[in-house]
Amino acid sequence: MTNATATTTATSDWELVIGLEVHCQLKTRSKIFCGCHTSFGDAPNANTCPVCLGLPGALPVLNAHAVELATRASLALGCTVHETSVFARKNYFYPDLPKGYQISQFDRPLATEGAIVVGHDAAGIPRVIRVHRVHMEEDAGKSVHDRFADVSAIDLNRAGTPLVEIVSEPDIRSAEDAVSYARRLKQILEYAEVSDANMEEGSLRVDVNISVRRHGEQTLGTKTEIKNLNSFSAIERAVDIEFVRQCTVLAAGGIIEQQTMLYDDKRQQVRPARSKEGSHDYRYFPEPDLPPLRLSAEYIAAQGAALPELPPARRERFVAQYGLGLTEVEQLVVTRELADRFEAMAAAAGDARRAANWMLGPVLAAVNASGQPLSAHPVSPERLGALIRMEASGELSNTAARQLFTMLEQQDGDPLELARGAGLLQVRDDGALVGWIDEVLAENPAEAARFLSGEKKLQGVLVGLVMKKSKGAADPKKVNQLLGARAD
Amino acid sequence: MTIDALRAHRVSDAWSVFDAVQAGPDGLNAFLSTDRTAVGNATGSLAGVPVAVKDNLATLHMPTTCGSKILDGYISPFEATAVRKLREAGAAIIGKTNMDEFAMGSSNENSAYGPVRNPVDRTRVPGGSSGGSAAAVASGVVRIALGSETGGSVRQPAAFCGIVGIKPTYGRVSRYGLVAYASSLDNVGVFGATVHEAALGLQVIAGHDRFDSTSANTLVPSLVPDLGTSDRPLTGLVVGKPREYFPASLDPRVAERCERALASLVALGAEVRDVSLPSTELAIPVYYIIAPAEASSNLARYDGVRYGHRAPAADLGTLYEQTRSQGFGAEVTRRILLGTYVLSAGYYDAYYKRAQAVRSLITQEFTQVFASGVHLLFTPTAPTTAFRLGEVSDPYEMYLSDIFTVTANLAGIPAMSLPVGRIDGLPVGGQFMAAPFDEATMLRAAAALERVLGAEAHQ
């Protein structure tokens, strides 16, 4: 690899242009054209039938639930869903493609022209990446090369799994924005409950198209496509590596070859995929086994109505309703579950500010340390809300509140009762406080005398001793007041 | 009367005729496999009736080879809807019939398992691609058989063999389990020894099927014609005579048999009206773009990876190439190549897209004719009688034998062929075409014509 200085020189001349193609598995129980299960991790070929195996004479029947979810996904991405879309055959030979073609949508996709906001610039103006189209298609199977010596095996459990392919416009200009786009896309699909969007299980797969051009140029350069990136960090690194590679080739007077690339995470390398064929000719034509997909305006509207509040709207509302900052809100809406839990906490606490601090501080720290999902965290929003109320009213010190939080994680029960039982509630009763003060003054006669004769700086020391005597339960503010009064 | 004949024909009769006609070097070669244990059910409209099924319909107990080496010995794990319905109606599925490979052909000389012979004259072809089913009925082994149609593959062999063949409206009969050739044109069709028997078979297999998305969700009326006792049962019926189907070049003897049939229709009370379907001449070129295009895609699954023939090969490319080169015959290969070409980038608009536009035009012309008060159209089924085995070797000349039948497939309308006479002892077929889903009117007219032509048609 070139050294850092050379790299900077080479890349600074060029603008990076990125478009993403994201394949997302829809959360249906059965496949897109038959009744086979879509469950992940079953024995090879357990979930197959004549239809998804493409046996002679079998015919596809479209899964209505898949259409529902695809429609919702499209609407969640701000797309226009078309009342008529057409399935097409994409013809190519591959051992894990049972029919020799993939049923997809081509020139008349389900939906077009959406947008995702990937962030805001310094002036607060949203940065928008346009969504070119959303179309439905079936997944292929899987070739297994490491199970048997010398032969490859085919597992067709995945064949016929319903997917939407979400294609962006080439609006992305940096690896960071590519990642933001992918993150937000995943987030929206999860919120809309159309997909598990699990990258490890392959229910969200990202292909990145990359080209470069000189700054100010309007036409696009020759692109390469990096296939099947399955983590956000892989997207970021692959884009960076490929950008440098393309710039280096161009700076040296070379040309970029349009080809499919693979990203090797271990070697941190982007290299051409093994098959170096010419451009594919998929010979698309309308699928004669399926009539055009017709959706009424009412149907489309109903799918839109079924959508929950989505992240962009939720962000805005959190800022407006709770007066929180954008950065915090960003973290609070990261998953629908987190945002829901935060809202329940804020309601129970009657204090969104403190609820946000607790959620983003101790709660997430505890959840992360436990390695368990947020839903498994034992402190319900209601109990945490009660804790926050006590803290806000001064009944609990910050320290005591942390101690109570740990207790709540370990045992059931009413937070107030637990706090009382453990002596965590701040004692604000004058009688008790005066008793402790008297004891401290009696036990430390020298300091007491100096303090009473006007040496004010000793007040802190004496408050500390009272706090110690009360085992932290004394309300330090009141102790200060009472002691101060004695010195006057 | 005809239904009584059907009921009188038992499975044992089928086997005795089968043994007589199938065996020996001059045997019909109409069957590719048989099930000697088939007896059918005691109840149902086809209780105990022996039925033969074309080998491109999936069956559980016999292989489904489509007349191809690439599917030699393949046994389907599921059953075609049409076959299941026959079985549920009590029919005994006694065998699978020979066919042109993957239903591509007009003579039944393209089967990997050898040609079928025409029972009327064994030196001649039975027509294709459902020639085996046509021969099975014409020879008397069965009185009802299933075939399939993509461009005339039921009607043309019915005409060549002197029996009745029906292609229903696209969507009337489920295609589930019919091995696809060209999906938008394929239909399951029925052969019968008589109009009544063919209608009875169609009645059983028709109807909506949720396993076929192109299957019509339309009620099936009673299709078995009841003519009553009237001398003029077709009074009020308007039969169109499309001029494009009676060109000056038509064999005058074929024209004459059809004119006689038209005269009979008038005698039966029908009005015959001259009509025009100007796009008819484009039907063959359009068909030979669309059908191969879809075929090239439908036949991609035969790659040697999962089932069927697999050529030994060291790498994947060779596996595909050798499997398909060895498994497919010349006609299938020709159409796959043609289809791949017309769909390929740069040619799609010029060929496939234009063909679809012309197809719409052809459909519109039929719609207009039927909207103008014409109930049925009557034409010859084929321009010639059955030709000799090996007589037609030019593929293009062969394609022209479907010239009168492909339009119905392109338009998706119902059509049928019935015998209207003979030339030198060889049957001539006459064709009815009807508006979509109006099989009942077509069958009523055909039954009336059959009644008056009767023995005459068989001379």
TrEMBL record, chain A:
Xref: SMART domains: GatB_Yqey
Catalytic activity field: L-glutamyl-tRNA(Gln) + L-glutamine + ATP + H2O = L-glutaminyl-tRNA(Gln) + L-glutamate + ADP + phosphate + H(+); L-aspartyl-tRNA(Asn) + L-glutamine + ATP + H2O = L-asparaginyl-tRNA(Asn) + L-glutamate + ADP + phosphate + 2 H(+)
Xref: PROSITE patterns: GATB
Family of this protein: Belongs to the GatB/GatE family. GatB subfamily.
Annotated PANTHER family: GLUTAMYL-TRNA GLN AMIDOTRANSFERASE SUBUNIT B MITOCHONDRIAL AND PROKARYOTIC PET112-RELATED, GLUTAMYL-TRNA(GLN) AMIDOTRANSFERASE SUBUNIT B, MITOCHONDRIAL
Subunit-level organization: Heterotrimer of A, B and C subunits.
Identification of the protein by name: Aspartyl/glutamyl-tRNA(Asn/Gln) amidotransferase subunit B
Taxonomic source organism: Gemmatimonas phototrophica
Automatic annotation (TrEMBL), chain B:
GO BP field: translation
EC number: 6.3.5.7
PROSITE patterns on file: AMIDASES
Enzyme class: ligase
UniProt keyword annotation of Oxidoreductase present: no
Pfam families in UniProt: Amidase
GO molecular function: ATP binding; glutaminyl-tRNA synthase (glutamine-hydrolyzing) activity; transferase activity
Entry annotation: catalytic residues: K54 (charge relay system), S129 (charge relay system), S153 (acyl-ester intermediate)
PANTHER family the record matches: GLUTAMYL-TRNA(GLN) AMIDOTRANSFERASE SUBUNIT A, MITOCHONDRIAL, TRANSAMIDASE
Family the UniProt entry places it in: Belongs to the amidase family. GatA subfamily.
Protein name from the UniProt record: Glutamyl-tRNA(Gln) amidotransferase subunit A
Organism per entry: Gemmatimonas phototrophica
